[in-house]
Amino acid sequence: MDTAVRIPGTGIRLGADSLMGLIPVVGDAGGAMVGLAIVYEARRLGVPPHKLGRMLGNLAVDAAVGSVPLLGDVFDVYFKAHRRNIGMILDHFEVDPADLHTQRTR
Predict the structure, then answer these.
(1) 86 vs 11: CA distance, rounded Å
(2) Given this model, what pLDDT does residue 91 score?
(3) Contact 36/17 with Cβ under 8 angstroms?
(4) Residue 73's CB: how many other CB atoms inside 10 A?
(5) What is the pLDDT of residue 46?
(6) What are phi and psi of 58, to 5 degrees?
(7) What's the half-sphere exposure (Cβ side, CA atoms, 13 Å) at 37?
(8) Long-range Cβ pairs for the range 7-16 (8 Å, 24+)
């Protein structure tokens, strides 16, 4: 949702959340719904409530600032709430994201 495509010649990565955010109201709501699905899965996996609260906070900030025209679109490129939340899940289970990449390429 946050880092699918790298803009050539830069270190900036975009994803579906940034592109959906270009559609007023509907795009940000759709991104929030995907984010809520990630939080729901984290809850099912046993992530503790205080971390779930931080994850919901990330989504709230992303949705609130993301809904501001233009500023929100720029903010979405840099804040990456979904990536932060996935990182919190991996951190909770002590999974190194690099290990996931090596497992997929075997």
Answers:
(1) 20
(2) 94
(3) no
(4) 16
(5) 96
(6) -60, -45
(7) 7
(8) 12/77, 14/77, 15/80, 15/82
- Taking only the tens place, the pLDDT of each residue in 35-93 is 999 999 999 999 999 999 999 999 999 888 888 888 887 888 788 888 999 999 999 99
Task: List the chain domain ranges.
Answer: 5-105
Q: Is the Cβ–Cβ distance between 39 and 52 less than 8 Å? A: yes
| CA angle centred on 22, ends 20 and 26, rounded to 5° | 60
The more confidently predicted of residues 52 and 98 is 52
Determine the Cα–Cα distance for residues 80 and 102; give it in Å rounded to an integer: 23
Round to whole Å and give the CA distance between 102 and 63.
33
